[in-house]
Amino acid sequence: xxxxxxxxxxxxxxxxxxxxxxxxxxxxxxxxxxxxxxxxxxxxxxxxxxxxxxxxxxxxxxxxxxxxxxxxxxxxxxxxxxxxxxxxxxxxxxxxxxxxxxxxxxxxxxxxxxxxxxxxxxxxxxxxxxxxxxxxxxxxxxxxxxxxxxxxxxxxxxxxxxxxxxxxxxxxxxxxxxxxxxxxxxxxxxxxxxxxxxxxxxxxxxxxxxxxxxxxxxxxxxxxxxxxxxxxxxxxxxxxxxxxxxxxxxxxxxxxxxxxxxxxxxxxxxxxxxxxxxxxxxxxxxxxxxxxxxxxxxxxxxxxxxxxxxxxxxxxxxxxxxxxxxxxxxxxxxxxxxx
Length: 339
Ligand code: CP
Known about the structure:
The longest helix has 19 residues, at 13-31. The chain has a five-stranded parallel β-sheet. It has a four-stranded parallel β-sheet with strand order 2-1-3-4, with helices on both faces. It contains 13 helices and nine strands. By secondary structure, the chain is of the alpha/beta class. The protein folds into two domains: 8-130 and 294-312, 3-Layer(aba) Sandwich (Rossmann fold); 145-288, Rossmann fold (3-Layer(aba) Sandwich). The protein binds phosphoric acid mono(formamide)ester. Phosphoric acid mono(formamide)ester is lined by residues 52-55, 125, 133, 269-271.
């Protein structure tokens, strides 16, 4: 099994199914009021080059619930990229923390951290992909399966720009053997390289990859309609062109949703630009599962941390733990400490 969680396609379908089951067990335990302290005493170093609500909060809360602790490390407040190289930052964090989570502008940055780190590195979103979101999304889809379907035969239609969430959805759904469709104007469709990765999954696991401009047809058999922002930080100058390309045909609204099967659900990774890529009418409707999806980021992060990090932690429980405690106390007492 890979040491890091950088791309979903680094893992087999069987490994992803295992972690989905682990997420389910941890969600049940959490709802029951007792998350196992699998990360007792562990430290999570979290580098965020971009803003985040869900990824930051879910990892921080997940670390605490598992008995560990998370540090929020913001460029400008740590030396990364200014007075210290990426490699040295990775080496130093590896000496002090048990895992590194990073949200990076550039995918090369997460690859560099992973290369120089000796502890697991988890990708909290880059300009290429968002694998922790994708894992959470598979888990959420499994919780909302239509009658008679399994996770392997869902039809997922992603409407909108070829974002990092679009790439991860393409990779994750095809890894499960699902039918994936992206509906978008030509200029905003998934590049060939992503489609090739998806088709390699299809060759192994079944399913399909379709990229189309025909959004009306793309929703007709969809079990899930997924959408994402039409622009992100740094794309402000492109907003007029993007709005013109997507609006009104690719907006997820009541009219478009009425073309989908009655059981079809809406997913959105959030944050949403309400009234832009999707309307309130749909985002707040019973067909929307966006807040189950958001909550599941927490359960997914617990699963990822338990899966990747817990097995790497050294434990000196029992007699050895007592020996260390006694030895340290004896030394301090010998120096006059009388507690
Ligand atoms: N979906 C997601 O990654 O949200 P944040 O940007 O708030 O972390």
